[in-house]
Design brief:
This protein is 49% helix and 0% strand. By secondary structure, the protein is an all-alpha fold. It has one domain.
Length: 121
């Protein structure tokens, strides 16, 4: 779950969390779910996460927060959270940790061929 383990923070930590921290962003996710604003919830979850968000992750976060959500909504939240992650940097951490294709990995085209300008390494 990566940064989403912030869901396990103590009540004191949650009360004192900065809104842009992982703990604060997970709390904002919970509040958005409680208000029925699924799009905002997904955006908060995507911002807090540093790994790809699956339905299992959504369900685990919801369970830890004491929230109920049907499977179809959880799937939508996961999809929208992943779209939010892809659209912007996560608090300066960059793309999710399990996405290593493309820029910065010696394979700018993401085709498995490496960078032709770099030669053999």
């Amino acid at each position: 779950m990566g940064r989403l383990n912030a869901v396990n923070a103590s009540d004191v930590a949650k009360a004192n969390a900065a809104p842009v921290s992982a703990v604060g962003t997970v709390a904002a996710y919970g509040a958005a779910v409680e208000m029925g604003d699924i799009e905002a919830a997904a955006a908060h979850l995507g911002k807090a996460a540093n790994k790809t968000v699956s339905v299992d992750v959504v369900n685990a976060v919801n369970t830890a927060l004491g929230l109920e959500m049907d499977e179809a909504t959880a799937m939508s939240v996961a999809d929208m959270a992943n779209e939010a992650q892809a659209a912007e940097t996560n608090q300066g951490l960059g793309p999710p940790a399990d996405e290593g294709e493309g820029e910065g990995d010696g394979d700018p085209e993401g085709d498995g061929e490496g960078d032709p300008d770099q030669g053999e390494v």
